[in-house]
Amino acid sequence: METGKGGGKVKVDFQNILDQKKVAIFDGALGTELAKRGLETSGTVNLTNPEDISDFHRKYVKAGVDFLTTNTFSMNRISIESHNLVIDLREANLVGVRLAREVAGEGQFVFGDLGPTGKLLEPYGTYTEGQFYDNFKEQALILVEGGSDGLIIETMTDLREAICALKACKEAADLPVIVTLSYATTAKGGRTIMGSTVAEIAAALEEYGADAIGANCGELSPEEMAQIASLYKQYTSLPILIQPNAGRPKLFEGRTVYDMTPEDYANGVMKCIDSGASLVGGCCGTTLEHLKAVVRLVR
Fold this sequence. Notes:
Elements: H1 14-21, E1 24-25, H2 31-36, H3 45-48, H4 50-63, E2 67-69, H5 77-82, H6 89-103, E3 109-114, H7 129-146, E4 150-156, H8 159-172, E5 177-181, H9 198-207, E6 212-216, H10 222-235, E7 240-243, E8 250-252, E9 255-257, H11 262-274, E10 279-280, H12 288-298
Parallel strand pairs: 1-10, 2-3, 3-4, 4-5, 5-6, 6-7, 7-10
Antiparallel strand pairs: 8-9
Helix pairs in contact: 4-6, 4-12, 6-7, 7-8, 9-10, 10-11, 11-12
């Protein structure tokens, strides 16, 4: 494999990895874990409490995951400004990559994480596709500069926004880019809250050069995410990444909770693998124990 531009040791080759491992594993949630410690659930923690982020990454490394995801999900300019955060965008992203890079072991890769802006494109909102593209290109370039082995665009609900981010990331560097969307239902071909189907999403993301595609977060259980994986399998030959929440979100005493046990979660993830996923990990509510259970079953 060739040397990557992102500062990692080698350029990630999903096919080579999957030929060796059959299934590769991403890490679990950071946001919900930060909340348990009473910390901000954003990239600001990279600068205020870097030791906590390093601790999470280190534990996932020891658990045996193949991919670490940087704590940079909301660190794009539009999101930062709309939340009135006083933070150095560049520094937050660079430190986010460094904290993961420092603890990644041999054969473990670091993917720079890009999340949605939280805003809508015209005509539903005030932003243009050009503004979204510039927004994501800025963040992607910093994540690449910091040493990311690849980029992951996740938790998208608007296919148009996902395409803006994908175009920006592909322009930023010759590194693999993963795109996952969040689904509201498995019905009618599996749909996001904006109404896009799995078939439409798979076709568009493949056309614009995604290296792996799939689903994360959303309103679905791991078992329902297996149905989404099965739909993707019908429409793409790309590697499929599925990262479910630890069960369907529930409201308890004004808080959103996820109460699926690690064992039940891992069994649900195995159903996703049986349905076509070759890359798996965890999203909201997943803990180190959830990922350890997944690693045990997969390995």
